[in-house]
Amino acid sequence: MTSHHPRLQWAVPALLLALIYAASLTVYGLSSRTGDDGAPFEIGRDEVVVLVTAKSLQPTTDRVQAEVTITAGEDLLHANGDTLNRDITLLLIPSTSHEEIVFRAGAAATTFDTEFIATGNAAYWPFDRFEVNPMVVEAYQGLGADRELVPTALLLDGRVDGWKARAEEVAVDTDLSRNGTGAALMFARTGGNLIYAGILLLMMTILAGLAAFVALQTFRRKRAVNTDMLGWMAAMLFAVVPLRGILPGSPPIGSWVDIALTVWVVSTLVASLALFVFCWWRDSAAPTRP
Predict the structure, then answer these.
(1) Which of helix, strand or coil describes residue 215?
(2) Transmembrane ranges (predicted)?
(3) Are residues 147 and 167 located together in one domain of the fold?
(4) Do the domain assignments include residue 290?
(5) Both 209 and 273 in a single domain?
């Protein structure tokens, strides 16, 4: 008859835990990588380069807050190279706050805050996707009816906390863009967010499973009733609320995760607590009267 060394019995679980830990860090690292957004770019003498920097994404309101600034070519600048020698009008679609931004002649190009309309559904958290499509950015020289389109290049920077972004060029109707081109800016949650969300959801499921196990074992009289367990079960029930509240991205109430998991976790905890109370009533002796 052979016996296993105690240390070997813990080797497999410890190795499995280490692999899971390493895999989670790998996924987080890969999902957090960004492209070489800081690479230098060339600008034509008569060209305007527009930089749109996404600052935040509001899933519940379908809005992307961004900063917009321009870099003009030599032909559009005074001899000092710092100020514009003509008015530049910037057209932004679909913007809710500044559809047109005017950079005045004689002034340096400044940064404007604006807001773009995004499409998506926050109820699909954490697998929700949002996009600004199409994003049309065009620059004109002059003002009013006399303005003329100038060559425009668009640079997008979408480093929003908790989101990974990518952009690609798309064709648009010429009624929307005289150039016939635009960009699609797409957002998806990072791997780090998904891992964190998965861990919290797993913890909620384990809490419900533990409570159900204790209640069933007590109901089958395999364990004696211990009234201290009533407080333990109630504490686990109230622990679900803060766990739900710290889910990354703050999914709105009524998201699919609530229907698929949260409601069932709470229901299991309440049912387990009720079953344990029944066992206490069934198996506890009534106090003897003097």
Answers:
(1) helix
(2) 194-217, 229-247, 259-281
(3) yes
(4) no
(5) yes
In angstroms, the CA 243 to CA 266 distance is 12
pLDDT in tens, 45-82: 888 888 889 999 999 889 999 998 888 888 888 877 78
Cβ–Cβ under 8 Å, residues 247 and 193: no
Tokens of 24: 């989670």
Number of H helices, E strands in the chain: 5, 11
- Tens digit of pLDDT for each residue in 242-271? 889 889 888 888 888 999 999 999 999 999
Helix (H, G, I), strand (E, B) or coil at 219: helix
Residue 6: cis peptide before it, omega within 30 degrees of 0: no
* 28 part of a folded domain: no
**Is the Cβ–Cβ distance between 63 and 53 less than 8 Å?**
no
For residue 18, being part of any structural domain is answered with no
Please give the residue range of the domain that contains residue 246.
193-283
Q: Residue with structure tokens 């995004």?
A: 118
Residues facing 135 on adjacent strands: 183
Count how many domains the chain has: 2
Note whether 69 and 182 are same-domain residues. Answer: yes
Q: Are 120 and 136 found together in one domain? A: yes
> How far apart are alpha carbons 161 and 169 in whole angstroms?
23
Amino acid 264 reads W
